[in-house]
Design brief:
single chain; 143 residues; mainly beta; 9 strands
Amino acid sequence: MSAALMSKAIDKTLFTWPAASPVLLGSRCRDCGNHSFPVNPSCPRCGGEAVDVVELPRRGRLWAWTIQRFMPKEPYRSSETEATFKPYGMGYVELPGALRVETRLTENDPKKLRIGAEMELVVYTHRVEPDGTAVMNYAFRPV
């Protein structure tokens, strides 16, 4: 069985999966042009309900970041335990012509993260279900 058949997106409305070049899915208001992530049924800026699902840019610039040094509490579900947890980067990536996305970062070394750095979308295994299915999530990595 292929890896794509043994994996699923953590939420199928967040990004395209399986895909050779996955992209985040957002919404764009036809009335005011505002972008939202994740997809919204209406525009948070103007309240309009004429929204389209759009693919967001795969690359952007790091706008802000921090390091998550402790394992998140419920409802967080991953394959990690308190004993295996490794700190990870969290940040906002500004996607050109769209919006800023809150995201996990693949880099957790503060010396390797800088505001304005070019970042690229990646998909990673967030956890493995008891039946062996990999649950995939998105993150951004430095280019």
